[in-house]
DNA sequence: CAAGAGATGGACAACGTTGTCACGAACAGG
DNA sequence: CCTGTTCGTGACAACGTTGTCCATCTCTTG
């Protein structure tokens, strides 16, 4: 900038005025400055600018895995809202590791992001207290923050699962299995709760071998499913606790001679083309991201109420057939 | 930092030394400084630090759509490599709009990212010349840069398509259709070329109504496919030019009474569970991202050769059955 | 023609760090 | 006891911007 000023024969501040299109510069000088800028290939250094203005126009997004379709869609929505507010987006995957989540969050804070959208991996987010006090707007998505009062955007996990399980019950099933993610994960727990509630509401007992919580690796899911289907009281239908589980379940069930009813949490591509087409409880990934990001910017604009908000987005049961398969016996 | 220094009764620089774990500080003073840091909840401002050190430890990733599974996987790989080099990742989706791509790239450059990984949307990337001259390492992925000599990581689009089309020919097909993305997109053009080459190599003529290039919206793909299947010389097999097209094709073909052979470019989840299971030419999305990011950091370390490199990753034909359906007549 | 108003431009400090250098104290060697 | 070396420390400038404030210059107006 100094070079540009020298070349154009003007002061530093005048260059700054031209670059920022501030008023009070003769068209003539502006042209001279612009020419110098072009000649020197000058580009304003936004880091320095932002250091001075104390707004970084960037937000950080921490989620579990950028490659998961659910989070990919969520990211894209957050990105779009950020862009519409003139902010850039840092992204990072925690891989469900609290330490990594904290590392990422603190790295973003050290860069002085204006705000954070976090899919919490850990149990305790009090490490964020000083940051929030320092003015970093923070919105949690998909799961509530641990031991921290902050904005959160969730889906109706328990309700959605209840609806999905009730759908299976309505089609005659009495022995229904549930395979979920690791029990420590909030969404997994909520969905398990929904399953229990739906069963209880129908007066159905739940045998311990009918539900299994754990990592969503294909091996684990396959083993759990096999155990449910081959026990003394085999299940006739399965509720899959998330899209990873559903996908593996579809594979395993396709290899069996007799059809097994299936409803999954989370929609996924091609669910409608499978045979049978898969009935799912769909959550609105872009919607969650959008609402969260909007809440973030509302906070940044200082418009938001002081208290933490809790938004719960509805889910939608999409009936495609796999939930209507009758019990084998 | 000034406050910390005052509270600990030391100089500014000593605090800096403690924060950066530089040698030459008595354990005693270090402890005093640390106490002040904790008391004040001080966190170093990395923006300022990076302004001073002139390295931002961040890279920018511009791609078409973060929500596309292919790019999501690629992003994750880039992120992992960046993390292992201690860098944070800015991401942005261009939505296939050259203006938006340029906006994003320049915004990243204004933040003085150390490097860029770009899936080019436009035809002309000379606007990047000054940035590259200024030292921003740049690697293009998936498609080569327009009118610019830079590192690029590609997949073997033409070769992969040749192989896929040859697979259909080997199973008796003579009239084979091709539906690709917009003709301006490099990968789309290369795949079309592969299709033509495979047909020519087998001595088969290609009728103009057998191939269609354009947006990958379901409507367009469906219309194109209908036209090919209902013409006077209907195709008996289809090569789908990318995962969006394949997905729509699967839907359309599933609704037809007579089976049509299909091979798609890009693997996708559940391709193996469909009936018939879909044969695909799989590219290695994480591999592309990883190789590109590694090349980027090689440049940043100054280890890389001066000349631009061009890496072409192989593809893999995964035979699952849909390519082996014989011609209807 | 003087004076006030408005337009235009520049000097300077500040944002929060780090690199450079110099200073003083402690210590070892002659 | 003097000199030279090492170690710990802090003052200061610099990174590249922008906000504040003041100086100048050119009009208009009484």
TrEMBL record, chains A, B:
GO MF assignments: DNA-binding transcription factor activity; transcription cis-regulatory region binding
Domain of life of the source: Bacteria
InterPro entries: HTH_LacI, LacI/GalR-like_sensor, Lambda_DNA-bd_dom_sf, Peripla_BP_I
Cross-referenced Pfam families: LacI (PF00356), Peripla_BP_3 (PF13377)
Gene3D superfamilies assigned: 3.40.50.2300, lambda repressor-like DNA-binding domains
Domain HTH lacI-type per the UniProt entry, residue ranges: 1-53
Keyword tags: DNA-binding, Transcription, Transcription regulation
Protein name per UniProt: Transcriptional regulator, LacI family
Organism of provenance: Actinacidiphila yanglinensis
